[in-house]
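Dear Dr. H.,

I hope your travels went smoothly. While you were away I took the liberty of generating a structure for the chain from your last submission, since the lab meeting agenda had it listed for discussion. I wanted you to have the full record in hand beforehand rather than looking at slides cold. The sequence, exactly as received, is reproduced here:
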Amino acid sequence: MERTETLTQVGTILVADDHPLFRQALVMAVGNVAPRARIIEAATLERAVESATGASDLLLILLDLKMPGSAGFSGVALLHAERPSVPILVISSAEAQVAAPEARRYGAVGFIGKDQDLTVIEEAIAAALEGHSPAPTPGPQDEVDDMASKVASLTPTQLRVLLGVLDGQLNKQIAYEMGVAESTIKSHMTTVLAKLGVQNRTQAALAARALGLGGQR
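The corresponding predicted structure, in token form, is as follows:
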């Protein structure tokens, strides 16, 4: 479908990609689609999360999977947990057939390969801003989907604790990084284990790794 006019949304669009040239290409694409929108750029996951939580008028997040601070689909999961009502469009060099459905499991509304023409990316941005996204491929519910929904149910804080576990950190290390007491992390960890339906930290890490949260994409 050919887009004949630009969109008039007034708000903020976050462009998160650590490659300067491609990030600028995305900024140009956003400007072509929604010239009235304010654009924030981020080159790390930490900066992307800070920007997403600080922009009350956030309309859309464009997200690369491979950025400093991001492992697997942790960036999608974290940003979706922080801003569940804001659409996330993943634009990545990962293999679409594998990465697209997994990105959707964690809250992305769509997936576009970095090898696509700029016009295709612009059309995907326009569709996301208008609330449209390609229908997911239907299929039976399996254990991976079930676990993904459990991980997606975690709060941002609980997800950060889980990601700390994935990094092999002890409770006291996670507590130090988050600026809270170790007892608070223990309490969060108990809730995380219950939500995931697992018995210990090792099982929680294995469950998340099986979904790509511990792998590089």
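Two observations you may find useful: The chain has a mean pLDDT of 84. The longest helix spans residues 182-196.

With kind regards,
E. W.
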